[in-house]
Amino acid sequence: MRILIVITSHDTLGASGEKTGFWIEEFTAPYYVFADAGAAITIASPKGGQPPVDPKSEATEAQTPDTERFYKDDIAIDLVAHTFKLSEINQQDYDAVFYPGGHGPLWDLANDKASIDLIAGFYNHQKPIALVCHAPAALVNVKAKNGEPLVKGKHLTGFSNTEEQAVKLDKIVPFLLEDELTKQGAHYSKGEDWESYVKQDGLLITGQNPASSAAVAKLLLETLKGEKQD
Question: Alpha-carbon distance 59 to 216, whole Å?
Fold first, then answer.
């Protein structure tokens, strides 16, 4: 199995003066689900090189066994430090793609042409696409073959309005993900705040928040193996 992981390159939280980036746990939990299953993993980002880490995801209370494993894993650290440029990636080389979250994707991956084209390519070639937390923002400008939004009519989830309000960033983000997915015609649903909640609609697999990241990765693997596809 050849799995591509796409990480944000965006590091500023609007005009707040604070830093953002990718959420470490949302990368590490899926990374080890894939690696432990024997998958070949490639990591890419819009700018290539070392993607920015959301400082809040490095806080003591945000750590998990997967993040602790990552900090001791020189191979994984090196892979993240030398991501490929997204514009150089071809979907033909991979079986599936996974997008971890963090707030960064709301600014860059939502509008990145290479990412938009890549997701359309995976979808049109019947390859599964998984995104967690804020990463479903990467779907909002992707079009289906008929020109309609790809998410129109699809059952999806992602970071909820109530969770955004809880972290006091609902006035800082460029858009609220729940609202934007709904505006594009998606059937958005959510579970309890901060609890694992995952939706699959054919090739699209989405998770609501950091607690959902491992479950999304496992569902992606099951889908790749042909065990499950709703």
Answer: 23
Among candidate residues 25, 163, 164, 180, the one labeled active-site is 164
What are the pLDDT digits (tens) for 4-60?
999 999 999 998 889 999 999 999 999 999 999 999 999 999 999 999 999 999 999
Q: Are strands 84-85 and 129-132 parallel, antiparallel or unpaired?
A: unpaired
Active site residue 10: no
Q: How many Å apart are CA 221 and CA 224, to the nearest integer? A: 5
- Determine whether 133 is an active site residue: yes
61 carries an active-site annotation: no
143 Cβ neighbours under 8 A, 6+ residues apart? 120, 149, 150
Residue 76, CA distances (Å) to 4, 73, 140, 145 in order? 14, 6, 29, 36
- Can you name the residues that pair with 129 across neighbouring β-strands? 97, 204
Which of 25, 133, 178, 180 is flagged as catalytic? 133
Q: What is the pTM of this model?
A: 0.97
CA-to-CA distance for 26 and 217, rounded, in angstroms?
10
- The catalytically annotated residue of 25, 103, 134, 178 is 134
CA nearest neighbour of 125 among 93, 91, 99:
91
